[in-house]
Write a structure and sequence with these properties.
mainly alpha; 2 domains; 19 helices; about 0% strand; AlgI; MB_O-acyltransferase; MBOAT family protein
Length: about 475
């Protein structure tokens, strides 16, 4: 069920109106029912599988709490829980990639031919809910959740429908303490509505229209000229940002209207002067998950420079693999890890760094956003599966077409959408801009609502699926 669809509008409107009419004891069951309807829209089989996964994890969580209460070690049980969750993820998401990899290394086609004999569908949101479940189990092991969570709260924590399909990846501290104390007032309603409208604007007006302009170029990128490929590189980075940031804006706005505040997932990353800061602002909940549950357990930065580099490279490469089951995504993650390593090598102590200003800051921001945009070539061509590396090579080869090659149609529109993307990054990056918007809500929000709805009517095409739904 897409956020930018009538079924979601109907479900959320019904839930919102009934939610605030019910006493507190009736609100959580209503949210659970609405969440089940939201996920069930994707199919009964996926829903049954998802509920079984949560049920199994809840059973093991009870065992963890029981061992904690008895003073016994939970390490071995935790390992089994993590293995089971990742085996479930690997079977549905990486089975065909595993067969293709065997073909690649054995120089044959027999493994992929074997895989064609049956179809393994990818359950919706499996990557996101797997990470959220694993984080919950690890937090119980680490005594961050000392008290047992009720079955209702446990299921609702995982199923909460505003953030279910594509995050943010919540921690227990983000949601559970607030579950019995939803809070709403006029300011929260205004901010929630603003977030929903801004999310729809990013998705329907910017991201979907960028997709229509640039999608054809990825079929034969080597046929286009340098200028077209250069602009499309930034166009795709803008599309991903607006698509995913738009989703999380709608998720956060919906949660606000239900009385909860869930984590912000984007904080204006395109205006970051360092790659380290960029990853503190891009897909924040995934970045912190990878840091807390992979990078630090590997040793973090405690083993010297090269050990730190290795841990960072492993973390970013596996983060790329989490996004998709092919070599394009792995290269994307490895490329990002390499850039982080190079930056770490040439920079000094981050605690002693002076914030760059003026033109120095401008050129640093320009460098970082260029490096990230280039990584999007691996990410976008990764959608092509087996052809991802070939298409990425064609794309980079097309940068040599300074004179010949096709020109991109509607490049002027694309340039406008890229500029609008940087405007939204500025709103997220600079708190003062956000504060000024909030101070002028009384007259700004009605005008903003009318403008957004008009633009959606002009540019909207019925709404495309969100990019991160495939992960």
């Amino acid at each position: 069920m897409l956020f930018n669809s009538l079924p979601f509008i109907g479900l959320f409107s019904f839930t919102f109106l009934l939610y605030w009419l019910l006493p507190q004891k009736g609100r959580k069951p209503l949210l659970l029912i609405s969440s089940l309807l939201f996920y069930g829209y994707s199919g009964a089989a996926f829903s049954i599988h998802f509920l079984l996964v949560i049920g199994v994890n809840f059973y093991f969580s009870l065992k963890l709490w029981e061992k904690k209460r008895e003073g016994k070690s939970t390490s071995r049980l935790l390992i089994w829980i993590i293995v089971l969750n990742f085996v479930n993820l690997a079977f549905f998401k990486y089975f065909y990639f595993f067969l293709d990899s065997l073909d690649f290394f054995t120089n044959s086609l027999k493994f992929s031919e074997f895989g064609k004999g049956f179809h393994i569908p990818l359950p919706l949101a499996i990557s996101f809910y797997t990470f959220q479940l694993v984080a919950l189990q690890v937090d119980i092991h680490r005594d961050h959740v000392p008290e047992r969570i009720s079955a209702l709260d446990y299921f609702l924590f995982i199923l909460f429908f505003p953030q279910l399909i594509a995050g943010p990846i919540m921690r227990t501290t983000d949601f559970l303490p607030k579950l019995d104390k939803p809070a709403i007032d006029f300011n929260r309603v205004q901010w929630g509505v603003f977030l929903i409208l801004s999310g729809l604007f990013k998705k329907v007006v910017i991201a979907d229209n960028i997709s229509g302009i640039i999608s054809g170029i990825y079929q034969h990128p080597g046929e286009y000229n340098f200028f077209s490929l250069y602009l499309v590189t930034f166009g795709f980075a803008s599309q991903v940002y607006c698509d995913f940031s738009g989703y999380t804006d709608i998720a956060r706005g919906s949660a606000y209207l239900l009385g909860y505040e869930i984590p912000e997932n984007f904080r204006g990353p395109f205006l970051s002067p360092t790659f380290r800061e960029f990853w503190g602002r891009w897909h924040v909940t995934l970045s912190t998950w990878l840091k807390d549950y992979l990078y630090i357990p590997l040793g973090g930065s405690r083993g010297g420079f090269w050990r730190t580099q290795g841990n960072s490279m492993i973390t970013m490469t596996l983060g790329g693999l989490w996004h998709g089951a092919n070599f394009g995504y792995i290269l994307w993650g490895a490329y990002l890890g390499l850039i982080l390593g190079i930056e770490r090598f040439f920079s000094g102590d981050p605690k002693k760094e002076v914030e760059p200003r003026g033109w120095k800051r401008f050129w640093k921001v320009a460098l970082i956003v260029h490096l990230f945009a280039i990584s999007g070539i691996f990410f976008r061509t990764g959608v092509a599966g087996k052809d991802s590396l070939r298409l990425a090579g064609e794309y980079f080869g097309g940068f040599l077409n300074f004179i010949g090659g096709k020109a991109l149609l509607r490049w002027e529109e694309l340039a406008v959408f890229i500029i609008l993307t940087f405007f939204w990054n500025a709103v997220q990056y600079y708190p003062r801009i956000r504060e000024k918007i909030q101070l002028r809500f009384r007259w700004l929000l009605p005008a903003f609502s009318i403008i957004i709805l008009l633009l959606m009517g002009i540019f909207g095409d019925g709404g495309g699926e969100f990019i991160y739904f495939q992960f």
